[in-house]
Amino acid sequence: MIPTFINPSTICVLVYIFLGLLSVVTICGNLLVIISIIYFKQLHTPTNYLILSLAVADLLVGVLVFPFSMAFTVTSCLYHEDLLCKIRDSFDVSLCTSSILNLCCISIDRYYAVCQPLTYRSKINVNVTVIMVLVSWGISALIGIAIITAGFSQGTCEEMKCSVDVVMANTMGPVFSFYLPAIIMLCIYLRIFLVAQRQARSIHNTNCQSTKSGATVSKMERKATKTLATVMGVFLLCLTPYFLCIVFLPLAYDPPPVPVIETLNWLTLSNSMLNPLIYAFFYSWFRSAFRMIISGKIFLGDFSNSKLF
């Protein structure tokens, strides 16, 4: 309950400022990732192209989903039309689907890199990566279009009820758009972990120079896998509470307050802000790329061939 000495309009302004800053950080962080991968040739790898696709999805969340969600969160400050509900739902669900499909593709990439390193370059090349990205975005776009044209999001936005859209407020939607891909990714990373542990023991017990050389490459791949597994773990931590709430919401006799659901929704959206921070924390070459971009060094000459690692 808001104290009487606090003007509700002041609360609206403060919430808008906070969420606006969250949006700006999300957009700027993912722009850094996108520019880094596109500009620096050393980062032109199949894995980084998948990271690029994920960063584009996160960037679009900041540009397209955040403004609508900000308006719905502070609903007492603004009246919302039914069409806006469908547009918000379309962007929200389609970009969420794109993110999780991109993460599935990344897990497949990591599986071949760690578990089948000898065939990795032949099975996961640029052409295969492009197909993965196109399929991920194609499915996501179809879902987004279906939400608007087929009328999957029905009802009005009174009392912020559009945040509990019909698309996600059932069992089958979350199962196919979240839980099934999440289980597949967890199984793949578990397999990767077991293989990496076995490789580590094998390397530890072998002292020949050729194995040491191979171990260096394997260590880089394991570091990349650890980082991307962290990205997936943070993604699941941010999204699972919301999807659990949505699944049990239709079954609940006393549903949770709308502000609780909106808070969980913002937790899912905040994931788009966290990925660039994870890359910067784990990858020294991303930190180097970020510094060169932020300092404006890349505008002073051609540094696209710079050695980042």
TrEMBL record:
<feature type="transmembrane region" description="Helical">
    <location>
        <begin position="124"/>
        <end position="152"/>
    </location>
</feature>
<dbReference type="Pfam" id="PF00001">
    <property type="entry name" value="7tm_1"/>
</dbReference>
<keyword id="KW-0297">G-protein coupled receptor</keyword>
<feature type="transmembrane region" description="Helical">
    <location>
        <begin position="49"/>
        <end position="71"/>
    </location>
</feature>
<dbReference type="InterPro" id="IPR017452">
    <property type="entry name" value="GPCR_Rhodpsn_7TM"/>
</dbReference>
<feature type="transmembrane region" description="Helical">
    <location>
        <begin position="172"/>
        <end position="194"/>
    </location>
</feature>
<feature type="domain" description="G-protein coupled receptors family 1 profile">
    <location>
        <begin position="29"/>
        <end position="279"/>
    </location>
</feature>
<feature type="transmembrane region" description="Helical">
    <location>
        <begin position="228"/>
        <end position="253"/>
    </location>
</feature>
<dbReference type="InterPro" id="IPR050569">
    <property type="entry name" value="TAAR"/>
</dbReference>
<keyword id="KW-0472">Membrane</keyword>
<feature type="transmembrane region" description="Helical">
    <location>
        <begin position="13"/>
        <end position="40"/>
    </location>
</feature>
<protein>
    <recommendedName>
        <fullName>G-protein coupled receptors family 1 profile domain-containing protein</fullName>
    </recommendedName>
</protein>
<feature type="transmembrane region" description="Helical">
    <location>
        <begin position="273"/>
        <end position="290"/>
    </location>
</feature>
<dbReference type="InterPro" id="IPR000276">
    <property type="entry name" value="GPCR_Rhodpsn"/>
</dbReference>
<keyword id="KW-0675">Receptor</keyword>
<dbReference type="GO" id="GO:0005886">
    <property type="term" value="C:plasma membrane"/>
</dbReference>
<keyword id="KW-0812">Transmembrane</keyword>
<dbReference type="GO" id="GO:0001594">
    <property type="term" value="F:trace-amine receptor activity"/>
</dbReference>
<keyword id="KW-1003">Cell membrane</keyword>
<comment type="similarity">
    <text>Belongs to the G-protein coupled receptor 1 family.</text>
</comment>
<keyword id="KW-1133">Transmembrane helix</keyword>
<keyword id="KW-0807">Transducer</keyword>
